[in-house]
Design a protein that fits this description.
With about 100 residues, this protein is mostly helical. It folds into two domains: about 1-70; about 70-103. The chain has helices spanning about 10-40, 45-65, 75-100. Keywords: Membrane, Transmembrane, Transmembrane helix.
Length: about 100
C-alpha cells in the first residue's frame, strides 16, 4: 500500500457505481443481445463474451482503486524523482566542468 491517506469509499458512491455497472450489463445482455442474435447469429456470442470480460475487468479495476490513492503519486515518490533528476544533472555538469578544466 502507498504511504499517506488512503481513499475510503463512500458507501452511497459505491452503491451508485455498482448499480450503474450492473444496469448497463443487464440491459446489454438481456435486452440488446437477444434482439441482435435474431439478425446476426453466432457473432453475438463473441460480443457477449467480450462484454462480460470487460465487465469483470471493470469491477476489478474499481476494487483496486479503492485500495490505492488515484490521481497523483505520493509526495515521497515525487521527492525521490526530483532528487534523482538533480543527481543526474549534477553528474553531467561535473563531467562538463572536468572536461573544460582538462583543456
Amino acid at each position: 500500500m502507498l504511504k499517506g491517506q488512503h481513499q475510503l469509499p463512500d458507501f452511497i458512491a459505491v452503491i451508485l457505481v455498482y448499480g450503474i455497472i450492473f444496469s448497463e450489463y443487464y440491459a446489454f445482455v438481456f435486452i440488446f443481445l437477444p434482439a441482435f442474435l435474431n439478425k446476426h447469429g453466432s457473432i453475438t456470442y463473441l460480443i457477449g463474451i467480450e462484454f462480460t470480460i470487460i465487465f469483470i475487468f471493470l469491477n476489478l479495476a474499481y476494487i483496486m482503486i479503492q485500495y490505492t490513492k488515484p490521481g497523483y503519486p505520493p509526495k515521497d515518490l515525487v521527492f525521490a524523482l526530483m532528487t534523482l533528476r538533480l543527481n543526474i544533472i549534477m553528474k553531467e555538469l561535473w563531467k562538463t566542468l572536468n572536461k573544460e578544466q582538462k583543456k
